[in-house]
Design brief:
Blueprint lengths: L5 H44 L11 H14 L1 H33 L1 H16 L6 H8 L3 H24 L4 H9 L4 H12 L1 H26 L4 H10 L3 H40 L1
Helix pairs in contact: 2-11, 3-4, 3-6, 3-9, 3-10, 5-6, 6-9, 8-11, 9-10, 9-11, 10-11
Length: about 280
């Protein structure tokens, strides 16, 4: 004989058990990833200590860690890391603002989209690293050229994905809002913008990667600050552990940016759902 209330608790316990299992699976995946990373580091350390690989090709992880701690402890690296982050965020935000405005205009006026699409495709197909020397000549050796290169690098992925998202809409909801006399702004805010969020964040994730690449390329080409500049100095001194330490810093920056973008996407998905429900 079942206890009183056991049947009532069953529907509540099933979702809780499913959520618990998902959390456990996620933690298990993280542990597997961590174990793989530890195994790779241990293998590299063993190969380096056995001198099976030249230190110029694969330095010992312990030497890389020592170079990283040495660079951070001196304090100079923090200024270079801050310079890279500032240029990344500045160029990324400029690209987002301009891309959203341009995508909104092109999606609303089909003639303009057809006219400017060939120019967008042509400029997107051109390697951005080829533009970097010109930007340095135009804007000089400083943060302005670095921010411009970052903005150019991540502008078009954001633009193309946002434009595609703004053109996707539910036909039934679109016809209903038209029949109710919705204005162009209401159609954009209540229908097109919420539906474009998945595409928009795909563009942001790609653009985020390009922003980091653009910042490092700019620092390679002609600036006196940033993680890329530190790498160039380490290369000139044949400091391979220092170069690997810079790569670790760049990987950490990329992971942190990806995590923040995932959190922003989670927040925006709730917002777009709320807006879509409000328009129904």
């Amino acid at each position: 004989m079942s206890k009183p209330g056991s049947q009532a608790l069953a529907p509540q316990s099933a979702p809780e058990a499913a959520a618990w299992w998902l959390r456990l699976s996620a933690r298990g995946d993280l542990l597997i990833s961590f174990a793989i990373a530890v195994g790779i580091v241990a293998l590299a350390e063993a190969l380096a200590r056995a001198e099976a690989v030249s230190p110029l090709v694969l330095p010992a992880p312990s030497a890389v860690w020592a170079a990283l701690l040495d660079g951070l402890s001196k304090g100079g690296w923090w200024l270079h890391i801050g310079s890279t982050i500032l240029s990344m965020l500045s160029g990324f935000l400029i690209a987002i603002c301009v891309a959203m405005v341009v995508a909104g205009v092109l999606a609303s006026i089909g003639v303009l989209e057809r006219i400017f699409t060939p120019f967008i495709v042509a400029f997107q197909s051109m390697p951005k690293i080829a533009i970097a020397p010109l930007v340095v000549i135009w804007l000089g050796f400083g943060d302005a050229s670095k921010i411009a290169i970052v903005a150019i690098s991540c502008f078009f992925p954001i633009l193309v994905n946002t434009l595609q998202g703004l053109k996707v809409r539910d036909r039934d909801t679109y016809e209903l809002m038209r029949s109710l006399g919705a204005t162009r702004w209401q159609m954009f805010w209540r229908l097109r913008l919420p539906n474009s969020m998945p595409y928009f964040f795909v563009g942001l994730k790609v653009g985020m990667i390009f922003s980091l690449i653009g910042a490092v390329v700019a620092e390679f080409v002609g600036t006196a600050s940033g993680v890329g500049f530190v790498m160039m100095q380490a290369k000139a001194q044949f400091d391979v552990p220092g170069m690997f330490a810079c790569l670790i810093i760049l990987m950490i920056l990329g992971v942190v940016m990806h995590f923040l973008m995932a959190r922003a996407e989670s927040f925006a998905s709730h917002w777009s759902a709320d807006v879509s429900r409000a328009s129904a």
